[in-house]
Amino acid sequence: MGIAARQLRQRDGTTCGPTVAVVAGALLDPTYRSALTDTVTGRDWFAAEQARVHASVNRVWPRMLGTTPMGMAHAITVHARVRGRRYRWRSFRGRRDRMADVQSAVRAGWPVAMLIGAVVPRHWVLIVKATGDALHCYEPSSGEVRVVDVADVRNARLTPLGYRRPFAFVLPRPSPRAATT
Hints:
By secondary structure, the protein is of the alpha+beta class. It is 39% helix and 23% strand. The protein contains eight helices and six strands.
């Protein structure tokens, strides 16, 4: 599924998280993706699905404050279960964060959501590809895929994504088999 070619944009100023969750779900779950790729109803479905996901992940937390990392993990896990995985969230560890788990997950075909902001967390993006030290990030307010360097993530220089600093990642839990070897 070509994300950039589809120009999938968030429907309003508070649905970056739900939009990222919907796109991640479409990347993970072929049945879910089929509704999005329908050329007749895909755009209408995409807008309605953002609203549905926004309501489902923010039952207690005020929607105007965005999607929590826990809510994002839940929303993506709904579709990752098709492939036998669950998602979890973890905090960004600053300059010492090697991000090996993030890069490994993306290289294995698992999208990783990243919460970014300035002083406070404000915006979700989705890491969809890793090549060398570059991360390809779906940015939902523009619908574009933008490239940032891993060093720029570590050093809080994410200006191509709209905000400078990462706060959290939502990524698949290690497979049980990997944990035992």
